[in-house]
Write a structure and sequence with these properties.
- The chain is α/β, with parallel strands linked by helices and 374 residues long.
- The protein has 3 domains: 135 residues, Response regulator (Rossmann fold), CATH 3.40.50.2300; 64 residues, Glutaredoxin; 137 residues, 3-Layer(bba) Sandwich (FAD/NAD(P)-binding domain), CATH 3.50.50.
- Helix 2 runs parallel beside helix 3 and helix 9 runs parallel beside helix 10.
- 33% of the residues are buried.
- The chain binds flavin-adenine dinucleotide.
- Flavin-adenine dinucleotide (FAD) binds next to helix 9.
Length: 374
């Protein structure tokens, strides 16, 4: 099997030549660029490539072709290469709801579109192609395993750990304990396999049946509050909690985010978040979760110039509570040891509900609402 393939299809010679030249210049080192002037011939080529188990990473097809439309071609091509990303080439100045790209995106028939002409190259050609290829890469076996997990075939904990790492975007490998590779890995890690799963970091660090907190700590997340007191404690690092953290930190509030599982919340479990402002083509849930986590991290670092806030991830058991000392500042302690107090804030923050501190929520605008800790 050779390099992954990018297939370009249009029956307009001038367009095909320019596209092949521009795409080849940027992506030619890593991908094999194939061109076809006829969608029917392209389907025959794709059939042959599938039979040879060649990998097609990306299909780019013009919508207007004599033999069939680009969307029809892409739908048929995708049956032959289901993991290939699909991009439709459409004309500019067609901002109408009837543009075939809109319908094809809505129906999930294409992943993205390109405009013709696609200048300037960096913005209108290289950026979209780089983005779709970045989404294609995770569908392939990782070339690097930052973490390797050895577990039993049916154990649920190993699958939970894999799910966490997938949602965090960390490349990892999975090995059955009774496979040859699994046995070798256990031996390398100095384990006899009586306790599973075993998690082996690239650095050589080994964890046996780790808790979420241990894994988070191994990955470099804080598992203990870095400061003795915080202005705001946000429970839950879903999109709402992270957005709240960014705004709070930008206002100079010393902020702590606690999360028992994975940064990104439910959004990280979605293959594609479709309706999110700023992402007209949609965005993978895992990518959005990673970007949101990074925004919270960077946002807090930026705000550190005025009044250092803290951002940290704290393993907390669901239903846990955080105690507040005094009406101005909250003392963050582990949920297992915290004794909830009702007289002062903070207000508990869950999913998309913002909770005010100190003042009853009803007196705040509607974004500040919720219930006190119980
Ligand atoms: C499969 C799927 C597809 C979706 N597709 C779309 C879409 O296309 N477009 C769209 O707009 N939305 C979509 N959504 C919805 C979107 O993901 C949610 O609206 C969004 O995640 C809600 O964010 P949130 O922060 O309010 O809550 P959540 O994402 O639920 O985050 C809450 C966080 O709080 C944590 N938590 C819970 N209890 C505690 C506790 N006691 N202590 C500490 N932490 C705690 C949880 O672990 C979680 O991380 C989809 C959701 C799913 C599941």
């Amino acid at each position: 099997m050779g390099q992954p393939i990018l297939l370009l299809v249009t029956d307009q010679d001038r367009v095909l030549e320019a596209l092949a030249s521009d795409v080849g210049r940027r992506f030619g080192a890593e991908y094999r660029i194939l061109v076809e002037r006829s969608p029917v011939a392209a389907l025959a080529t794709l059939e042959r490539l599938a039979a040879q188990s060649e990998e097609v990473a990306l299909l780019i097809a013009a919508q207007r072709m004599r033999e069939m439309t680009g969307v029809d071609f892409i739908v048929r091509a995708h049956e032959l290469h289901p993991t290939a990303k699909r991009v439709l080439l459409v004309g500019r100045r067609e901002w109408t709801p009837t543009n075939p790209a809109v319908r094809a995106m809505t129906l999930g028939q294409i992943d993205d579109y390109l405009f013709e002409p696609w200048l300037p190259l960096g913005r209108w050609l290289y950026l979209p192609i780089t983005q779709v290829l970045a989404d294609w890469v995770p569908s392939q076996a990782p070339s690097f395993e930052g973490i390797r997990i050895v577990g039993p075939r049916w154990g649920s904990r190993a699958h939970e750990l894999r799910d966490m790492l997938t949602r965090m975007g960390i490349p990892h490998g999975w090995y059955l304990a009774d496979s040859q590779a699994g046995r070798e890995l256990l031996q390398e890690a100095g384990q006899d396999g009586s306790r599973l799963p075993v998690v082996v970091f690239h650095s050589g660090r080994v964890f046996v049946d780790p808790s979420n907190a241990e894994l988070a700590e191994g990955l470099g997340f804080g598992t203990q509050p870095a400061a003795a007191a915080y202005d705001l404690v946000i429970v839950g690092a879903g999109p709402a909690g992270l957005a709240a953290a960014v705004y709070a930190a930008s206002e100079g509030l010393q902020t702590l985010v606690v999360e028992p599982r994975v940064v990104g919340g439910q959004a990280g479990t979605s293959a594609l978040i479709r309706n999110y402002l700023g992402f007209p083509r949609g965005i993978g849930g895992g990518v959005l979760a990673n970007r949101a986590g990074a925004t919270a991290w960077c946002g807090c670092r930026t705000a550190a110039r005025s009044q250092p806030p803290r951002w940290s991830s704290q393993a907390a058991s669901p239903g846990g509570a955080w105690a507040c000392r005094g009406s101005r500042r909250c003392s963050a302690r582990a949920c297992s040891t915290a004794r909830p107090e009702r007289r002062h804030g903070p207000w508990r923050v869950t999913t998309s509900t913002w909770l005010g501190r100190g003042t009853p929520p009803a007196r705040h605008p509607c974004t500040w609402q919720g219930t006190p800790l119980r």
